[in-house]
penicillopepsin (Penicillium cataractarum), 396 residues
Amino acid sequence: MTGLSQIVICAALAIGAIAAPATRQFPSTFTVNQVARHVGNKTVNIPASYARTLQKFKATVPERVAAAAISGTVVATPSDSSDDEYDCSVTVGSSTLALDFDTGSSDLWVFSNKLSSSESAGHAVYTPSSSAKLLSGYTWDISYGDGSSAEGIVYADKVTVGGATYTSQAVEAATSVSSEFVSDTSNDGLLGLGFSSINTVEPTAQKTFFDNIKSSLASPLFAVELKHNAAGSYDFGFLNSSKYTGSITYVDADSSQGYWGFTASGYGVGDSVTTTTSWSAIADTGTTLLYLPTKIVKAYYAKVSGSSDSSSVGGWIFPCSATLPDLTLKIGSHTATIPASYLNYGEVSSTDTSDCFGGVQDDSDIGLSIFGDVFLKTQYVVFDASGPQLGFATQA
Ligand SMILES: *[C@@H]1O[C@H](CO)[C@@H](O)[C@H](O)[C@H]1NC(C)=O
Ligand SMILES: *[C@@H]1O[C@H](CO)[C@@H](O)[C@H](O)[C@H]1NC(C)=O
């Protein structure tokens, strides 16, 4: 495997294969590498994306955000996109799909061959394998504050992630998606890595892929290395010590809300921790930005001249010419510094190219502090189901 060209997407690196039980065939450890997906001149409707974040965490979408999302006037070109999105290649039934691995949700939902060709344009679609079983009477649906929605039916089918196959995975096949999903060609669906308690299949919640395979891994964990402007990776069942420096600091994970929750312990604007305080947060690969308590966000933007909390844009903005400080966060005894360059999300809109949107935003509407990609790109993060616990170390 290792001799293959790096062009092989999401290549599996298998170590220590084990005997295969009836419904599982896989190595006890494997790595899934992300692959860049070129999506052209990617733009983001900032209020719509914020509305989706709010609804993902069951928060109320304020009227001004919903209105701005629907009018779609604030369309940014993210500075970190390089016109690319990073997904993982997963075999679902008979199809190979580019899925977004999301530790903040617990559904595996995909564009499917039940969609009309106009709904699935730009996407690869799931076709059930010959051994797929339709779960009769089972359904799922999601809808967001910006008006976007998707719904469908559920199969038990074969899913292969990085060489690991589970033959009876709940696959949520979309039978209808709204125009917002149609135009977002950045992936063909999501693979949730949150706790199975928040899976949305009715009438009975289904297990995530990770829950289904974890007992057969060398250790019941996965570790995430997301990168700034580059493809990252997910290690399942083992830790790769060449991906981090120093040691890993573990803290208890709180799974009570179905997310990978933990307690953060301090912060500082700049490269060191200046304030010790504790607050609850979650680690979410499926959220782009870093959402922190108001006090911390205000302390940060107090050091950015010209910054303001813009209600029309739906968050903190600043002149693109401003010099940003770094931001340091503490978890347990570990400190993580986010470089200033990660904290500029890009120009606010094509008509306002002098203002930029901040990578760190206020969490008060969400009611939950979210350590999203802006933070995760600095760390090697261990999601360990034993405990459960989370581990953090600075990326190598
Ligand atoms: C991207 O935007 C530039 C500048 O507006 C334009 O010239 C180019 O054709 C666009 N590329 C794509 C793939 O849309
Ligand atoms: C560990 O990561 C390094 C750097 O990405 C990679 O070259 C190496 O193959 C990985 N080792 C294992 C055992 O996966």
Residues 7-225 form a domain with the Cathepsin D, subunit A; domain 1 fold (CATH 2.40.70.10). Residues 70 and 146 are 6 Å apart (CA to CA). The pocket of 2-acetamido-2-deoxy-beta-D-glucopyranose (ligand 2) is lined by residues 13, 31, 240, 242-243 (CB under 6 Å).
